[in-house]
Amino acid sequence: MASSSTLYIIAILFLQLILAFGNVSPSSRLSTTNNNNNPWLSPSGEFAFGFRNTTTNFFMLAIWYNNIHDQTIVWSAKDMNNSNNLVLAPTGSQVQLTSGGLTLTNPQNESIWTAQPNDIVSYGTMLDNGNFVLVNNKSAIVWESFKFPTDTLLPNQSLELGATLTSRFSETNFTSGRFQLYFNDDDHNLMLSPLAWPTQFRYNFYYRIEVNNNSASSSLVFDESGDIYVETNKNGTTRIKPQGTQWKNLDLDPKLYYYRAILDYYGVLTQYSHPRDTKAKQGWTIMRYVPDNICIAIFNEMGSGTCGYNSYCSMENQRPTCKCPYGYSLIDPSNQFGGCQLNFTLGCGADNGEGLNVKPEDLYEFTVLTNVNWPLSDYERMQPYSQHDCQQSCLHDCMCSVVVFSNQNCWKKRSPLANGREESGGNLVLIKTRVSPLGKIGASPSTNLKKDNQVNPILRGLLIGSAVFNSILLAAVVLVTLLKPKRVVVGTTLLETNLCSFSYDALKEATWGFIEELGRGSFGIVFKGELKAATSCNVVAVKRLDRLAQDREKEFKTELRAIGKTCHKNLVKLIGYCDEGMHRMLVYEFMNNGSLANILFGQTKPTWNQRIGFALGIARGLVYLHEECDTPIIHCDIKPQNILIDEYFTAKISDFGLAKLLLADQSRTKTMIRGTRGYVAPEWFKNVPVTAKVDVYSFGAMLLEIVCCRKSVVLMESGEEEKAILTDWACDCYMEGRIDALVENDQEALDDIDRLEKWIKIAIWCIQEHPEMRPTMRMVMQMLEGVVQVPNPPSPFSFSLIP
Ligand SMILES: *[C@@H]1O[C@H](CO)[C@@H](O)[C@H](O)[C@H]1NC(C)=O
Ligand SMILES: *[C@@H]1O[C@H](CO)[C@@H](O)[C@H](O)[C@H]1NC(C)=O
Ligand SMILES: *[C@@H]1O[C@H](CO)[C@@H](O)[C@H](O)[C@H]1NC(C)=O
Ligand SMILES: *[C@@H]1O[C@H](CO)[C@@H](O)[C@H](O)[C@H]1NC(C)=O
Ligand SMILES: *[C@@H]1O[C@H](CO)[C@@H](O)[C@H](O)[C@H]1NC(C)=O
Ligand SMILES: *[C@@H]1O[C@H](CO)[C@@H](O)[C@H](O)[C@H]1NC(C)=O
Ligand SMILES: *[C@@H]1O[C@H](CO)[C@@H](O)[C@H](O)[C@H]1NC(C)=O
Ligand SMILES: *[C@@H]1O[C@H](CO)[C@@H](O)[C@H](O)[C@H]1NC(C)=O
Ligand SMILES: CC(=O)N[C@H]1CO[C@H](CO)[C@@H](O)[C@@H]1O
């Protein structure tokens, strides 16, 4: 049998000899400097062997598809002596074919890689199937690249016992990565395992094809028709196909398509196709893959899972996507799969230099996530336990990063969180985060109230970076979506309101697969999208809610009804929603000019008149929410990030009506405060009922920001610390009669000093410590409009009863 197949190969090679232009004779050489023009090509020109650049000044010896636009690499030279790592050839390196084989030398003429068979080589050739072979004088193959695969298999290539496929490190980094396909020594089962990077220690498998016989000879065959299976001689010759819902039987046509199978860098074994016709639409299409869902397939005590540590994974468009929980950011912003880091220290009090008397309540709070889990990071389980006790327990435990609460069960989890995945089941996941990056300023409760909790600029940069990366990653998918004939996407209307109900798929299509991130808020991520109606096309903002509190799901529609009935010039209009399975989304009209925060704290300041318009508009919107609409709505999170500006510079309040849905328990605890620090009324921290006056407080804090065009909390240089907290500083300036200091060089504001003084007074009325001292929003509006007089306000803290 062996001899007949050898004969066959000889016959094939003979054919190739006749078509001889693909052959490379000894003493031929390629160098990194001349390579681009003349790699060694296969007879048809479809495959090329030569140098490809990796980073600046380094190249790799590779084989690639030469006729397709991507020039996809299918093989690269690996250093078997060094964890199979990619051989990096500096500029000036050469590869030379001699009778001894192939030798890669660096510019110092030192050998850095060789392919040296135990036979004399007559010539080498790049075959049309992508195999580079060295042939002896009896026309037998003595070395072939197919026997040393990297991460890719091609039709007519098989993986034998002892050989492996190792994924690359990332999309563009060909260094050996974190996953491996291999035959297990004990039973010859074909396995997929994560590797402990960089040593290549294999963790427990997450997918296998069972052979279960260690005396059977087995190989993974990618046959010429494009089919893939394990062939074993157990019980005669048997073919075993991969099993999985995403591994389908397909009609294959290798005459029309290139096929390749690759162990992708996120651990999925995928078969792709690409049309051979250069006039057809270019690009690789996913045909089938195992495992079905890599996010949940890996279940090891050790190792991070596909997304890296502290991250969580979900399948989108057939590929895994990784996200960082709130308070965490990507370690490497260019690598979505590289894991997340805490952007704060999770310490045990004194470690942080904060002193032993600081209460954890003042340092940490919890952010809610649902349908996410890190099933293997538990270190403690309490049962029966209440949600409140569960939270308190984590709060006072400096090891604890996350608690999961479900059904009187409380699981405490520690960092690094591993194997994070989206998972239905309605667990309440509470992520412990630092109250504020400015936690070191002071420790007394009253200063704590004024800390700012905005996402800081660097963190935001990282988030945007990851969004950009996501876009690149999914660009191919978008392309596919865009090229599909456009369907008309319209929803069905919810009775009594004009709200449309959208399916998840419709919104996925409208947002091109949730690609273009507009921002991240306390409720989830907002994406840009387009709704195509029969006659028009509306740009929308789709808010994907990711933290609906437990038991609030039933109320989702009730709340929507209330929001849907609102209609006011100064409120962002809700167009529709999605309530399908675990997906909850809100579709809003899109606001051209972004948020008030962007405008106020951006490069060019808005004019004084524009700012006056914003303040009046917001006040009117709040009066409507509090008094004029059918069901009064307390916003609970008024801040510049939640005010959006349309093309005519009208300020519109967004995110109203959501507070109830997201608060697990309306009698809030200190750690579950809904609002954002800096704008949060003091009664949130006390045992008194929360009323519409919380919005008045936040409005007051924001009015100062609008007037002064600065953030409520900024870090100041030494000597100017008194300016750090705007509410305090404004009160000081007012009491000392120097309100002009608040607007510094803003001539427009100084020219309108009467209004300036009046509005500062209104703001101070709004931020009174005691809610009953604050005016209603209607009174605030009337004072702003000049309809009623503004009395002199008391100092906000003058009636303060320190608890
Ligand atoms: C490789 O070279 C091409 C052409 O010179 C260049 O556009 C590309 O950026 C280089 N790639 C890397 C990773 O340096
Ligand atoms: C691997 O190491 C052995 C001995 O250390 C050496 O003879 C061989 O050339 C090395 N192989 C490669 C590809 O560098
Ligand atoms: C490189 O080294 C080989 C032997 O190690 C030698 O035969 C060859 O002449 C050298 N080439 C150059 C350019 O120095
Ligand atoms: C092949 O080379 C060997 C020496 O390496 C020689 O003995 C033999 O005659 C050659 N065979 C052919 C067919 O040229
Ligand atoms: C590759 O092609 C040759 C000739 O058609 C055939 O004998 C061999 O079995 C094929 N190998 C695989 C793995 O399909
Ligand atoms: C690839 O990733 C590894 C691990 O992070 C890194 O050490 C190496 O420098 C990277 N290589 C390139 C070419 O970026
Ligand atoms: C294992 O494979 C060998 C080789 O094909 C075969 O002889 C033997 O019967 C197989 N054993 C079992 C248990 O299937
Ligand atoms: C081997 O074949 C026999 C007869 O077809 C069958 O009963 C047996 O289950 C097979 N064994 C395995 C391990 O597939
Ligand atoms: C602990 C930590 O890394 N905190 C960082 C969070 O982000 C801000 C702004 O980017 C940094 O200043 C902190 O050092």
From TrEMBL:
Bilayer disposition of the protein: Single-pass type I membrane protein
Annotated GO MF terms: ATP binding; carbohydrate binding; protein kinase activity; protein serine/threonine kinase activity
Annotated Bulb-type lectin domain residues: 25-147
An example Gene Ontology CC term for this record: membrane
Signal peptide range in chain numbering: 1-20
Catalytic reaction(s) noted: L-seryl-[protein] + ATP = O-phospho-L-seryl-[protein] + ADP + H(+); L-threonyl-[protein] + ATP = O-phospho-L-threonyl-[protein] + ADP + H(+)
Subcellular location field: Membrane
Chain residues that bind ATP: 543
EC number: 2.7.11.1
Spans traversing the lipid bilayer: 458-483
Assigned protein family: Belongs to the protein kinase superfamily. Ser/Thr protein kinase family.
Protein name per its UniProtKB record: Receptor-like serine/threonine-protein kinase
Organism (species): Medicago truncatula
Lineage, highest ranks first: Eukaryota, Viridiplantae, Streptophyta, Embryophyta, Tracheophyta
